[in-house]
Amino acid sequence: MKKYTSISSIQEFLVKEKRRGKTVGFVPTMGFLHEGHLTLAQQARRENDIVVMSIFVNPLQFGPNEDFESYPRNPERDAELARSAGVDVLFLPEADEMYSGSSIKMHVTERTQVLCGSKREGHFDGVVTVVSKLFNIVGPDNAYFGLKDAQQVAVIEGLVNDLNFPVNIVRVPTVREDDGLAKSSRNVYLSDSERIEAPVLNKSLKDAERLIREGEADPGRIISYIQNRISAETSGIIDYIEIYSYPELTPIDQLQGEFIIALAVKFNKARLIDNIIIKAAQEEIHHV
Ligand code: AMP
């Protein structure tokens, strides 16, 4: 596995490989790798000649009171895991080089007024800035993103459409622990008792899906159901529980078509997110 930190050196390598007709799959991450990231890399491995993974804790996507400084990091372990997942090229850019210029600011105007976008001001502006730069540096054919961050997928699909990036965005389903908790680099910050409670987030989403399949079509009642479960069964503080069409992220008043139920819950040292995307076939919904 090759490792690059400088932009010009990775570009030089990848331009040569692409001239030889090699396809490139790209997995952007912030590191502290777990099975979620590795699943993205393994899928990229199966679908491309060359797999590039970036590890960059992007300062632009953290707010002033967020966990940029304390975000977990372990570059040696990450390199070992990336290699074992079949990554060919690890890109570890430096913030100073990534953000040496300041003549352009990107601002996302759709799909960000809700969910994490409304809670984390500037977060998705930082995400599209770094992703645009990484796409220009790597020039991937396919880029892999996890549906654990479903709003991020929706925003990046908007970015690629609007700015005509010649890259195919691949949505990868959320990878979970055996008890249903979505894998996340931030799970290490859960206390033992919070770790026991945390699977309730996924359980309540799955039970909500069951209620919908059984005929519940009212978003408000589904939200209340999840709210009650999480308040009763965890010590977390609910940041949001919301339902929108997916990927447009516009409000819906009936649970029809393709929609997302997404939530964020704050525990003592970790804010966890999870979601479920439901595609309701017309005949499956029995109106109450
Ligand atoms: P991050 O390092 O948190 O920025 O994540 C890098 C990529 O891995 C993003 O596309 C995430 O959506 C994806 N990812 C993180 N956790 C998971 C998971 N549990 N399942 C699937 N993808 C994930």
TrEMBL record:
Its main location: cytoplasm. It is found in: Cytoplasm. Pathway: Cofactor biosynthesis; (R)-pantothenate biosynthesis; (R)-pantothenate from (R)-pantoate and beta-alanine: step 1/1. ATP binds at residues 30-37, 146-149, 175, 183-186. The active site is at residue 37. One of its GO terms (molecular function) is ATP binding. Homodimer. Catalyzes the condensation of pantoate with beta-alanine in an ATP-dependent reaction via a pantoyl-adenylate intermediate. This is Pantothenate synthetase. It comes from Rossellomorea vietnamensis. The gene is panC.
